[in-house]
Amino acid sequence: MSASPITGLLRQFSWPAWRRQPGRLLTALLSITLGVALAFSVQLINQSALAEFGAAVRSVNGQPDFELRAQRGGFDESLYARVAQHPQVAVASPVIEVDTQVQAASGERVPVKLLGLDVLTAAPVAPSLLPQVNDDADRLAPLSPDAAFLNGAAQQRFANATSLQLRSPAGWVPVTVQGRVGAGGPPLVVMDIAAVQASFGWLGRLSRIDVRLQPGADRAAVLRSLALPEGVRAASPDESAERASNMSRAYRVNLTVLALVALFTGAFLVFSILSLSVAQRQPQFALLGVLGLSARERLRLVMLEALLLGLVGSALGLLLGTGLAALALRLLAGDLGGGYFPGVAPRLQFSLAAAAVYGALGVIAAVVGAWTPARAAQQMAPAQALKGLSAAHGSAGAAWFGPAMLAAAGVLALLPPVAELPLPAYASVACLLLGGIACVPAGVGWLLKLLPAPRHALALLAIERARHERHTATIAVAGVVASLSLSVALTVMVTSFRDSMVEWLDQVLPADLYVRVPSGEAASLPPALVEQAPRLPGVRRMATLHSASVQLAPERPPVALMVRDMVDPAQSLPLVGTLQPLPAGETAAYVSEGAARLYDLRPGMRTALPMPDGKRVNVFVRGVWRDYAHQHGAVVLHAEDYRRLTGDTRITDLALWLQPGSDIGALQRTLRTLAGPSADALQCATAGELRAVSLRIFDRSFAVTYWLQAVAIGIGLFGIAASFSAQVLARRKEFGLLAHLGFTRRQVLAVVAGEGAVWTCAGALLGLLLGLAVSVVLVKVVNPQSFHWTMEMALPGGRLALLCAAVVAAGTLTAWLAARSAASRQMALAVKEDW
User: Fold this and answer.
1) pLDDT confidence of 465, banded at 50, 70, 90?
2) What radius of gyration, in Å, describes the C-alpha atoms of the chain?
3) Can you spell out the DSSP letters for 674-695?
4) CA 14, CA 19: separation in Å to the nearest integer?
5) pLDDT average, residue stretch 423-439
6) pTM, two decimal places
7) Beta-strand (E) ranges in 104-197?
8) Rounded to whole angstroms, how far apart are CA atoms 306 and 22?
9) Taken in order 146, 152, 156, 159, is the CA torsion positive or negative?
10) What value, to the nearest 5°, has the Cα angle with vertex 366 and ends 361 and 371?
11) CA distance 819 to 758
């Protein structure tokens, strides 16, 4: 048959069936639309954020051939003269980078990046950072010690203010806005490098040197001849953007996989709905077969229906996904709560390639879901079907598929990550779901065998029909099992993480009050405050902490270096495993799970750890501890060891244990008085306040996960409604026969509701078991491989019971409502055509 008759059949055969059952069609269409929309929006959001962040980094870093960098503490500026005088160096531009705060005239404090530049050398390397002086300002303003130049984001944020105050280690530094710079990205302030060195504690030091070589110069040879000091290295200008991409990659991949949950569920709904549609239209397909429509053409017709469904759903999904991405970029600033792109407010960047990929995924999901029903239409025997003798129950030869998929899932879960992503684990989850769905017929049969034979006739009829129509049960509950299992898995994963985090917070926040200064260059608490705090009224005990960051690998984000007063590390740190004995003369280090996984650090080994001043010291790894605050690693040193190695006595945090009944408010006021000029920068919080803030950040980070979970279970419940509605409508002749046998309308409704309850109970139990299996992979494999930390499994019994109860109630109620419309007073006439 040519394509034209198939097109005519779509119009005259398929379209009327869709029009008679719009709810069923819209449910399948909605599942494809939502799946494509969620996955595409996540892709657009992260792609836009990465592009904006990369553009901002390039505009700030310029385009040198390479940068000379050290740890965050910088390096001695004497290196600059040696670099600038090198015969193969065309331009060497010194730069100081400071993370600080701006206080505008309104009193608002905003985090900004401050750059100190030598405007005479920066222009050839980073023209976008060249100050553009206002018309009413002195042309030599870029050399003035109090002149500041703002980029567009800073000008907009500070409402074109003419004066600002910048936070320095010694207090607030007033500056006058004399012009602007062309760099994009987050708020940025540019000043003369000498002024930054003098006012922000950088005398004699630099953050980096941007180097432009002479044409034809050999970079490797230049670096060898420079003989760089220890801790100074040559870095790529795009290194920051690459690190941002790497640090957010696991988060992006996990969000994308979660967003595809709806699409995965949609494939099962397409399977359920088209299977029931083919079963309901079996006489029409049989008549078409008798009239000359071949088996291959019947398959093509059903597949073409699914293709159209996928195309329309994907097109709507791409439109909806674009709108969701634009809204999320406006509300969530591009990181979906993950916090990987602070200060970046990206604009939507539409991608035709991404649209093609996710649109194709939607079409593939619809076509894959339609394959089994299309094969059922192809294998139908038309003559027997017209007499009601056909009963295609699928291939019994596929009984091996489910167990094979479950076995493959177990093997894949044991494999290591690929490119630091848990791709085998995701494949394991997919195999678990496919294998679990394939085992639904056997599972339903096994569960129903466990039920005792009821004495009531209606209950016996409902259970026996459910037992003998396992193939129909598979069609009805496949989407339910898929959506419920994924919802159960996500619920267990999020609950396990949250409960583990609460327990972790209780251990890492043992004190009553915490005092700190905002993180930034040369940040520290005033020595007078540190000295007098333990003697204040109401203070029982005090511990100190100094936090910094060090770069263990150029391609990775910095690792947090935490210097703590610790008498017993086993009490102070949430250790994973046991402590190794410390050899005599060694310096002990305690690494977080993230650092241990990323840098292959194990208890008992020795490693060279860089210090903020660039020097490297040998440390002995005594133990590994659980840390949910630093995804990319943290290292703890004893305070006395750190001070001995570096001579740095700065303190950034205090932990205070208070006497019972102490006035925390009065103590905070006293601490601010002792802080002197730094009083307004002092941050004080109780342990309860820090727990609340941490959990708010957690809930914000998982807000998208909660929403995706709701979408998955919502689609599953819609699938129940569509499946049972179509199934009941296909059973009008059966209801007519029951009426002939003397069943009342109420009894027919009770039988159908009982079948719905039996099938959905079986589906809920199978979905629960499958979801628990998936949650084990998510908690024990995906999470450690993605975020480099572990957690304990927690089963929220109440929430899981509510999920299962909602599925059972929805299935039972839907079956009853659908049967109520089908089992009318004239249902006996439904068998008239068989007389």
Assistant:
1) low
2) 33
3) HHGGGGGG-EEEEHHHHHHHHH
4) 9
5) 87
6) 0.75
7) 109-117, 132-133, 147-150, 163-168, 171-180, 188-192
8) 15
9) positive
10) 120
11) 15
